[in-house]
Structures are given as structure tokens and as C-alpha cells.
From TrEMBL:
PANTHER family tied to this protein: BLR5614 PROTEIN-RELATED, CONSERVED INTEGRAL MEMBRANE PROTEIN
Keywords: Membrane, Transmembrane, Transmembrane helix
Residues passing through the membrane, by range: 12-29, 41-64, 108-129, 149-175
Pfam family, one: Transglut_core
The species this protein was found in: Cohnella boryungensis
Stated name of the protein: Transglutaminase domain-containing protein
Length: 381
């Protein structure tokens, strides 16, 4: 330690950690030695069982992951039809996530297995509480000696709790170094001392280096799952959209011909809604609209173009994605943008297209598409 002057300060984090220890001390003194021994034993038993449950769930999720992927792959054969129920679309989205997203699949399996283990742990803990033999430290449990021993045990227990709280704060600062409160947390002298002397040596690079990498990878997959919401939101199509899509693609034979015909139709029939953009930029008023509204009004912004294109493409049996990210603004910068990718079965590849920009040139699978479109890490597959 560097001295009390550098450890105890006016920082609220410091006083929170000290309060955890103080409350445990008071609680221990009130319970006495016998009650504190029981509380400490239950806490330690619970901690061991909790750690064991996490380790067991992690190993079980890892082992089960390839089997679940195989199971999901066998059941996701075709995208549900546009008139399929919400539950069919939701089930497709969830199973697609289990099939295509390794970290999401691991996290889902981990949470399920861990929950089941915790139920069993609860029974074990209650059984221990009922059968735990407790030493008689003092003939008078409420006496001064008993309270003193209880306070000492409570202090030890409070110290462990404070260490756990510090570890949680350390993990938060590692994940969000520029996040709210991160700088303030690290200004706490007691936090800095405990983190430097105990948490960092004990965890090595696990929390400070590996956790942010894992969190970023998980964020990528959550982005993918989040963008799949359009598969659910736009599942049910009005008859006029289906009829229009089938009419556009009626005499087209290949997937590429159908995809390009729909690109031309959306790109020339829908007008860019500058009023919608101004309302959002100046007033914060976002006018959410579904493909039916875009089709009826013939107006929209990039996400509306992309959602309408995706809906019409699915109506004629094409596999399509809504992709979000950044688009070049023509002035040296980039802004939020949305476009599509469509799968051409005869070529066995996904091709990008941007119906919003159709009036500025040919943006159906042009060379250098990625130079002007920076995709967000996730896509709606």
C-alpha cells in the first residue's frame, strides 16, 4: 500500500468499497460468531458452486456447440414465405443465429446450461444450510466474545465482497475505457491500489486484454442478430407488393435478371424523402415506415429503399440481406447508410446493390462497391 492518504479519498467508489466491508463487519457482530461462521461457510460454498457452475457450463456449451450448429443447419433449409406467421419468421431468425454465429450460439447454450446448473446449485445450497454443523465458539452466542469473533469473520467476508466489486469495476473499465464513469472509477485511490496489487496480477490479461476482444466479437454478432429484425418486421407483405414484384420479375429467368429488374424498379419508382431527413436532423423526429408505406407513398430514405427491395426480392424467391453501415457522401466524408446484398444461386455468390443511389449511376454489383460502402460488422442474413 502507498499509505492511507492515497488510498482513502472523497471518491464515491472508495467509500462504496469501504461501506461494503463496514456493513459486513456490523452484520457479523450482530449475528455473533456462530451466525457469522454459518454465513461465511454458506458464502464460500456458494462461491465454489458458482465458479464450478460457470466452468461446467462453459465446457458443456463448448462441447454442445457443434452439435447444435449441425442440428440448426439441418432445419434451416429455406427462408419462410412472405406470408408466414410471425413465429415462423422469428424461429427462422433465431435458428439462423444459432447456425451462423459461433459466439451467439455459445452464449445461448451457456446461459441455458448455467441456468439449469444454478437450479441444482440452489437445492444443494439449501441442503447445506439445513445440515451444516456449526461450532459452538462461545457458550453465550450473544456475548462480547461472540460478537468480536463475528465482527472479525464479517470483516473478512466484507473484504472478499469488496474484492469482487472491484473486479466488476475493473472489467467495466477494461470493456469501456472511454465509457461513463470509467475515468471517475479509476480516480479512486482504493480502487487503484486493489486493482494494481490484487486484481491485475490475479487475472493477468484475461480481463484487461482478452475481455474487450471477446466483447467486441460478441458485439459484432449481436449486430448481426439485431439487423435480422427486418426478417421479422417485414415478414408479412401486402398483396400489392407481392403482385408488383412478380410482375417486374415475370419474364426474367435467372436470379441476376430478377434482382437487377427489381433494383431498376425500386431505384426509379421511389423518390428520396429529403423532408424526412430534415425532420430527423433538425427536430430529432424519425418517421419509421415499413415497406408497405414506402410502396404506397413512393418516398423514403436509404433504409426504406433497402427494406422495400428486400421484401420484393423475397416475394419472388430471392435470398436477400439488408446491410447497414456508412456510405460515401461525395464531400470527403461518410454518413449512415443502408443497402442490400442478394444471392445469385447460379453464380453461388452474394452481390451488393444500392437502389438509393440508382439515379446517380449503376450501383448493381459495380467494381469498387466497397470503396464507397463501409458495412457495419453485422448483416441481416
Amino acid at each position: 500500500m502507498n499509505g492511507a492518504g492515497t488510498v482513502v479519498d472523497a471518491n464515491l467508489v472508495t467509500w462504496m468499497l469501504l461501506t461494503i466491508v463496514a456493513l459486513s463487519l456490523v452484520q457479523g457482530a450482530r449475528k455473533g460468531a456462530k451466525g457469522s461462521v454459518k454465513q461465511l461457510a454458506l458464502f464460500l460454498a456458494g462461491a465454489v458452486l458458482t465458479v464450478s457452475a460457470v466452468i461446467l457450463a462453459a465446457f458443456a456449451a463448448t462441447a454442445a456447440s457443434p452439435y447444435v450448429q449441425s442440428w440448426a443447419s439441418e432445419r434451416i433449409l429455406d427462408r419462410p414465405s412472405p406470408d408466414a406467421s410471425f413465429f415462423a419468421q422469428f424461429g427462422y431468425t433465431a435458428l439462423a443465429g444459432l447456425r451462423d454465429m459461433p459466439l451467439f450460439r455459445f452464449a445461448a447454450l451457456f446461459l441455458i446450461i448455467h441456468a439449469l446448473i444454478r437450479v441444482l446449485v440452489g437445492f444443494v445450497t439449501r441442503a447445506l444450510a439445513d445440515s451444516l454443523p456449526l461450532p459452538a465458539v462461545s457458550r453465550s452466542p450473544g456475548g462480547a466474545i461472540s460478537r468480536t469473533f463475528g465482527g472479525m469473520i464479517g470483516t473478512a467476508l466484507g473484504t472478499v465482497r469488496a474484492l469482487l466489486a472491484t473486479a466488476v469495476l475493473f472489467a467495466y473499465c477494461a470493456l469501456f475505457p472511454q465509457g461513463p464513469m470509467s475515468e471517475y472509477i479509476q480516480q479512486s485511490g482504493l480502487y487503484r491500489e486493489v486493482a494494481a496489487q490484487i486484481i491485475r496480477p490475479a487475472t493477468g490479461s484475461l480481463l484487461e486484454e482478452r475481455l474487450p476482444v471477446f466483447a467486441k466479437a460478441m458485439s459484432v454478432e449481436l449486430d448481426q442478430l439485431w439487423q435480422k429484425r427486418y426478417d421479422v418486421i417485414d415478414a408479412e407483405l401486402p398483396d400489392d407488393i407481392v403482385l408488383a414484384a412478380k410482375s417486374v420479375a415475370e419474364e426474367k429467368n435467372s436470379d441476376e435478371e430478377k434482382a437487377r429488374a427489381l433494383y431498376d424498379w425500386v431505384g426509379t419508382r421511389i423518390a428520396y424523402d429529403h423532408d424526412k431527413v430534415r425532420a430527423y436532423e433538425e427536430q430529432g423526429d424519425w418517421r419509421e415506415q415499413n415497406p408497405a408505406m414506402t410502396f404506397a407513398t413512393r418516398k423514403g430514405v436509404c433504409i426504406d429503399y433497402a427494406r422495400l427491395y428486400a421484401s420484393m426480392a423475397r416475394a419472388v424467391g430471392l435470398e436477400v440481406r439488408v446491410v447497414t453501415g456508412l456510405g460515401y457522401d461525395g464531400r470527403g466524408g461518410y454518413g449512415a447508410h443502408a443497402w442490400n446484398e442478394v444471392y445469385l444461386a447460379e453464380q453461388q455468390r452474394w452481390v451488393p446493390l444500392d437502389a438509393t443511389w440508382a439515379n446517380t449511376g449503376d450501383w448493381f454489383d459495380p467494381p469498387g462497391f466497397a470503396d464507397t460502402h463501409i458495412r457495419q460488422e453485422g448483416v441481416s442474413a
